[in-house]
Amino acid sequence: MTKTLIGIFLGLISLSSLAQSIDATRLFVKTNNPDQIKNWKHVSKVTPLFANNYLLHTNNLEALTAKLRKNKVQFEYNRIAKKSQLPKTLPDTQKNSFSDFFLGPSFFNDPEVAKIWSFSDAKNNGVSVNSYYLSPLSQQKEPIVVSVVDTGVEYTHDDLQDNMWVNDIEIPNNNIDDDQNGYVDDVYGINTLQRNENGEASGNPMPTHSHGTHVAGTIAATQNNELGIAGIASTAKIMAIRTVPDRSDETDADIIESFLYSAQNGAQIINCSFGKKHNEGGNIVNETITHIGKEYNVLVFASAGNEYGRDIDIEPKYPASFDSEYLVVVASTNSRGSLSYFSNIGKKSVDIAAPGSKIYSTVLNQGYGYKSGTSMATPTAVGVAAELWSNFPELTALQIKKILINSSVSVESFKNKLQAEGIIDLQTAVRYTLENYSSL
Prior knowledge:
Blueprint: H1 15-18, E1 22-30, H2 35-38, E2 43-50, E3 53-58, H3 61-70, E4 74-79, H4 98-101, H5 129-134, E5 144-150, E6 189-195, E7 201-202, H6 211-220, E8 236-242, H7 252-264, E9 269-272, H8 284-296, E10 299-303, E11 327-333, E12 352-355, E13 359-363, E14 367-371, H9 374-391, H10 397-406, E15 409-410, E16 422-423, H11 426-436
Parallel strand pairs: 5-8, 5-9, 6-8, 9-10, 10-11, 11-12
Antiparallel strand pairs: 1-3, 1-4, 2-3, 6-7, 13-14, 15-16
Helix pairs in contact: 6-9, 7-8
């Protein structure tokens, strides 16, 4: 991805013009001398992030930014995504199913797996999940942790609970930070939308919206448990992070905290099925993606967005339009093999496509349902990546990204719309890795 960002020093932009898109209590600074700032009048707290990046907490944003300008300290506002409607659960009217496309044996005994059309072969516009598991391609696999940074995950769902990441050091519900990582009772992940009097995020990522639970099921619902559906990845463990509000107005500070927590606690892949149209040049999220990629070997997947064919090379969408090499951006396809009518595109910014229209997965209250969006395409791609990486755990994040792009199934109509110009495919990706391993 080569999208050029324009500047990160935003001090000359008037506060009044940004009032609807910034958090008035937090902002980022880049400094080699944080001690200079921590005792300033309007700074209540300084939180280290990484390198020379810090998050400042303030009770007077305007006064603080004036002093930062005066002292020539580089700063960046904490951006807020505009409130928007997340994909709704759709009625069960799907005509085509996996069983319509594939007449051979099924690897899965999960009773509703036939509703997941994307499990069909590439020739039927799926990602070849069933064929992969029936083939001799699968290797000795290692567990892999996937962080779902979203509206939270119903970690008690019968089809998810066995595949949740668990912080074994933390003792549940004792109201103590047992592992001393700054979070109390973070057994399954964290919730940056709920904070205590010290500003520390909650350790309970239980959601009130189905979006993140649907994403998690696509990646790693328990396979062959004679219940509900199956996820794409057989050894993935879902780390639950609640950072996206039910109306999708997430902040950069919460996103960064979620990314750092995920990487520091062992996640190798982060699923980001969210985004916003405006960023006004802010680069701290992009820097964070690159930092965790280099420092922790993490690959971040982001949805391309649902603005009905918007070219995000021209009209950026964030985080999808960031240029970090550790970012994979996913467009959505339908069961006919075409780009979904709602999916954004971008020859430079969008890496690959995956099924995202009418995807059946887990939802709240032990339920299941269909959702559509690039939000659904992203976990399809993440499930493929997680299964691939579990077969070849010695590979790097950038090698996994290269494999996914190079092994995609080409679609002529995608030309000049996506970087890979094709649909991700599990069976092809594993075969490609086996055949080209020595040259990766």
